[in-house]
Design brief:
disordered C terminus, binds 2-phosphoglycolic acid, 266 residues, TIM Barrel, single chain, globular
Length: 266
């Protein structure tokens, strides 16, 4: 399982370094790396990536960026490209987050371009998908998520799939304190893994991790991690405190409520 903390636009440099070292000490007890099925990542704001990345060296915690531009370089003032991120030690980029789709105008075409740019730069991706409250109330959640996934992932190579993680984040659950019920999350994860991904995956390629995101916290991690098809979590608010994120990572560790990679691909 994969537990990722998305710090969004929060913290000063000093606070970010303090939180990063707190996360490292919390997860060092859980055991990361080759002998564990648990993966942990944190996504600090751009200005702290290099400093936090230096602090994470040797810890096994992945340095994740919150976004990237689709172009590699040029007159795109204030933006950050995937090769730039790679050069400061970033391992993976979040693309298609609903806050980027809503406030930054990222539509499916731009999300696809960013995803391709990240993969071309040698980075992994976390592709976020999810439906709005209106879409869920109209019963359109599977159609909306299917459209987002097809737009971003159709035609990826075997190597590109190996670097791809998906995060299902229902918009109505992000930052609202409302979490999808185990039935709602389970139904969507089953749909993604059982119906949508088999259309898209080349023969013989295992399904990628499908994370759940939206008001994940210590109080609900065990129930979420136990849901069939949930391969980890993308955590906003509750990742801003080391103990809280540590407890969430523990819930994703083998024996901590989460399933192993082996169970995921069965
Ligand atoms: P939240 O954010 O955990 O604060 O709901 C999740 C996300 O936006 O990835």
């Amino acid at each position: 399982m994969f537990a990722v903390g998305n710090w969004k636009m929060n913290l000063t440099l000093e606070e970010a370094l303090g939180l990063a070292s707190g996360v490292v000490s919390q997860v060092s007890e859980l055991g990361l790396g080759a002998e564990s099925t648990l993966q942990v990542g944190i996504a600090p704001p751009f200005p702290y990536l290099h400093a936090v990345g230096t602090l994470l060296e040797g810890s096994g915690v992945e340095l994740v960026a919150q976004d990237c531009h689709a172009e590699t370089k040029g007159a795109f003032m204030s933006w950050v490209s995937a090769p730039m991120l790679r050069s400061v030690g970033v391992r993976r980029v979040i693309v298609g987050h609903s806050e980027r789709r809503k406030h930054g105008g990222d539509d499916d075409t731009r999300v696809r371009a960013k995803l391709e740019a990240a993969l071309a730069a040698g980075l992994g991706v976390i592709l976020c998908v999810g439906e709005s409250l209106e879409e869920r109330e109209a019963g359109r959640q599977a159609e909306v998520v299917g459209t987002q996934l097809r737009a971003a992932l159709t035609g990826l190579s075997v190597e590109q799939w190996a670097e791809t993680v998906i995060a299902y984040e229902p918009l109505w659950a992000i930052g609202t304190g409302k979490t999808a019920s185990p039935e709602q999350a389970g139904e969507m994860h089953t749909q993604i893994i059982g119906q949508i991904l088999p259309e898209l995956l080349p023969a013989g390629v295992d399904a990628p991790f499908v994370l759940y995101g939206g008001s994940v916290k210590p109080a609900n991690i065990d129930a979420l991690a136990a849901i069939d098809g949930v391969g980890g979590v993308l955590v906003g608010g509750a990742s801003l405190e080391a103990n809280s994120f540590g407890r969430i990572a523990q819930g994703c560790a083998p024996g901590g409520g989460g399933v192993s990679n082996d169970a995921r691909s069965e």
